[in-house]
């Protein structure tokens, strides 16, 4: 007679099928998920607390209004195309390729309007660009 008790085998947890199922679920979720793109977000542009620098003769200030109109050194630009803006920037630079272009865009200006200013400056050969911000804490 054998009086020794046999110990029951400890159950093994096999994780490989669990991992396989999780990977299948992950792949399914990745393939079936739709990624929505936000085409328009309401963004408030930043403000700066720095003092305004005095205007230097090599600066070309380009203002962009909320409705997409441009003004170069305080004079309104006829039309809204990149070509017209590029011609006005070239004339304002008067051959000075080191002129600094300061983009002063309204908080409600479309991003495309600002990109048009950057493209026009590139076409005019002006590579020094900066952005103006409002002084103070609130726009």
Can you give a write-up of this model?
- There is one protein chain.
- The protein is α/β, with parallel strands linked by helices and 139 residues long.
- It has a domain at 47-135: Nucleotidyltransferase, domain 5, CATH 3.30.420.270.
- The protein is built from three helices and seven strands, in the order H-E-E-E-E-H-E-H-E-E.
- It has helices spanning 16-32, 82-93, 111-123; strands spanning 47-48, 59-64, 70-72, 75-76, 100-105, 128-131, 134-135.
- The strands form two sheets. The protein has a five-stranded mixed beta sheet with strand order 4-3-2-5-6, covered by helices on one side.
- It is found in: Cell membrane.
- It is a single-pass membrane protein; Single-pass type II membrane protein.
- GO terms for molecular function: transmembrane transporter activity.
- One of its GO terms (biological process) is protein transport.
Q: Class by helix and strand content?
A: alpha/beta
CATH topology of the domain at 47-135: Nucleotidyltransferase, domain 5
What's the CATH first level of the domain at 47-135?
Alpha Beta
Helicity, in percent? 25-40%
Distance between the termini: 94 Å
Beta content comes to 15-25%
Q: Supply the number of helical segments.
A: 3
Shape by Cα distribution: rod-shaped
Radius of gyration: 31 Å
Q: What does the largest sheet look like?
A: 5 strands, mixed
Mean pLDDT: 80
Family: Belongs to the ExbD/TolR family.
Membrane topology: Single-pass membrane protein; Single-pass type II membrane protein
GO molecular function: transmembrane transporter activity
GO biological process, one term: protein transport
């Amino acid at each position: 007679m054998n009086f020794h008790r046999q110990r029951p085998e400890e159950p093994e947890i096999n994780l490989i099928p669990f991992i396989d199922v999780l990977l299948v679920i992950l792949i399914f979720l990745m393939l079936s998920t739709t990624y929505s793109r936000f085409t328009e977000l309401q963004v408030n542009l930043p403000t700066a607390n720095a003092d305004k620098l005095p205007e230097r003769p090599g600066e070309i200030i380009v203002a962009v209004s909320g409705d997409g109109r441009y003004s170069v050194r305080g004079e309104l630009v006829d039309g809204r195309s990149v070509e017209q803006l590029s011609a006005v920037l070239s004339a304002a630079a008067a051959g000075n390729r080191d002129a600094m272009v300061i983009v002063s865009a309204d908080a409600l200006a479309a991003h495309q309007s600002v990109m048009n200013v950057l493209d026009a400056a590139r076409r005019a050969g002006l590579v020094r660009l900066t952005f103006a911000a409002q002084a103070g804490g609130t726009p």
